[in-house]
């Protein structure tokens, strides 16, 4: 089954509502440059979701950056999956390295989030990646496949098939350094092999895998060209509408 390419922005803790509105307006003016063979999404701060839902071009879907894996309750400051789903959120990140490192999220907690996202009809984007010392130690595959298997644990074949994994080497995030596309491709192959063994060949072939870490308009094509990479999860370069559109155009050229 052919996998639809996906360009996903992760705004992290950037943009006020006014700034999000300006972004959506600017993107709307260039929406003819968004190719219908590609999916687009923005994972925005919660306060921006409303204005984006109203103003983003129809091709661009809503994403959230986090969720708490309970239906409701006394969890001050958290947000429930049903609240995001009600809002029209399609994608939810789980296990971003910033949350693993700064907020101490474990693979088990991330797995609870993934299950809650799926149970509420949304698509989990499970973020995985090795840090620089793990890279130096040559254990990237073990680390990444371990995170994938634990993050997706308990999902059915079909649920895995429609999930998304974002491979984001921690050392490449916000650093201006990227993985070599062929190295990211090898990691993506290892992820598919592990998924095929644990679930099925069909699930492994359908699962979408994104690369993330210092993706920019001038390098996004080199990742999307790799046969096991289906798009990109982009932080800094997704904040500017011109650069978001430039990445969309670079992906379109790969498909042409
Ligand atoms: O963490 C990332 C996306 O989730 C990557 O961030 P940068 O694109 O800013 O390196």
Can you walk me through this structure?
With 256 residues, the chain is an alpha/beta fold. It has 12 helices and 8 strands. It has helices at residues 17-29, 46-55, 81-86, 97-102, 107-119, 132-136, 140-151, 157-161, 181-198, 201-206, 220-224, 241-255, and strands spanning 6-10, 39-43, 60-64, 91-94, 123-128, 164-167, 208-212, 231-234. An 8-stranded parallel β-barrel has the order 1-2-3-4-5-6-7-8, surrounded by 5 helices. The longest helix has 18 residues, at 181-198. Keywords: Cytoplasm, Gluconeogenesis, Glycolysis, Isomerase. Involved in the gluconeogenesis. Catalyzes stereospecifically the conversion of dihydroxyacetone phosphate (DHAP) to D-glyceraldehyde-3-phosphate (G3P).
What labels describe this entry?
alpha/beta; TIM Barrel; 12 helices; 8 strands; 15% strand; binds 1,3-dihydroxyacetonephosphate
- Oligomer state of the chains in this structure: single chain
Number of helices: 12
Q: Can you tell me the number of structural domains?
A: 1
Judged by helices, strands and strand pairing, the structural class is alpha/beta
Return the CATH architecture.
Answer: Alpha-Beta Barrel
Q: Please give the largest β-sheet.
A: 8 strands, parallel, barrel
- Count of β-strands: 8
Unreliable stretches, pLDDT < 50, 5 or more residues? none
**Rg estimate, integer Å:** 17 Å
Instruction: Round the mean pLDDT to the nearest integer and report it.
Output: 97
Order of helices and strands: EHEHEHEHHEHHHEHHEHEH
**Strand percentage:** 5-15%
Biggest sheet strand line-up = 1-2-3-4-5-6-7-8
Proportion of helical residues: 40-55%
CATH topology: the name is TIM Barrel
Return the CATH class: Alpha Beta
Family: Belongs to the triosephosphate isomerase family.
Active site: 96 (electrophile), 168 (proton acceptor)
Protein name: Triosephosphate isomerase
Subcellular location: Cytoplasm
